[in-house]
Design brief:
The chain has a single domain, classed as Fumarate Reductase Cytochrome B subunit (Up-down Bundle). It is about 65% helix and about 5% strand. The chain has 7 helices and 2 strands. The protein has a two-stranded antiparallel sheet.
Length: about 210
């Protein structure tokens, strides 16, 4: 049996942010579905769904800036943006794709070696930067515009009108719904199915010595 060592990779602020964000997005998805399909789903009243959707949305906007401040004003920013050359990043991404494509099914070792400042592999690093620095802010911006169309009428018209803003918001809603469903599966690909889940509770990842 392979000896394992424990590495502290998820500080407490990150764990609190992660679970608050996860629960918040699930609440937004459920209330969003209720708002969109009010005649088909009866989880709660339309008014309650809108109110809860708005409140949770504002909480997550604040949560996002807490996350952004934590990574910008500490040295943890290297977790998302390691100092890699484009060539090395491409090579590491290709190796990771090979691993996910067939290596994992043959029992090959993961080419990514986790450490406190390098907990994401090349694919994860690129994906999370796109999600957290582009897609999440875009979802929040479109949500704020739809929250008060009268107040932000100028900005709504600038972006092409209500239909365009609403379409972008819904498309991102579909993406984040898919992400919420796929994320637990990807998190189960550790050395045991529950290893990554435990790590996001305790802060410690177990890795081969």
């Amino acid at each position: 049996m392979t000896d394992m060592q424990r590495i502290y990779v998820h500080p407490l602020p990150v764990r609190i942010w992660h679970w608050a964000n996860a629960l918040g997005f699930i609440a937004l998805i459920l209330t969003g579905v209720q708002i969109r399909y009010v005649d088909l789903i009866g989880l709660m009243s339309f008014r309650a769904a809108v109110s809860l959707h708005n409140w949770v949305g504002w909480v997550l906007v604040g949560n996002f800036f807490i996350w952004l401040g934590f990574y910008l004003f500490t040295d943890k920013i290297r977790v998302y943006h390691p100092e890699l050359s484009p060539v090395k990043h491409f090579r590491d991404s290709f190796r990771q794709l090979q691993y996910y494509g067939y290596g994992i099914f043959k029992g090959d070792p993961n080419p990514h070696h986790l450490s406190a400042y390098h907990k994401f592999n090349a694919l994860q690093s690129m994906a999370y930067q796109i999600i957290m620095l582009l897609l999440v802010p875009l979802q929040f911006v479109t949500g704020v515009l739809l929250w008060d169309l009268k107040r932000f009428s100028g900005a709504v018209e600038f972006f092409g009108g209500v239909r365009v803003v609403d379409t972008v918001h819904v498309l991102l809603f579909i993406f984040f719904t898919a992400f919420i469903l796929v994320h637990p599966y990807l998190a189960s690909l550790g050395h045991t199915p529950s290893a990554h889940f435990k790590a996001m509770i305790t802060g410690y990842e177990e890795v081969d010595e």
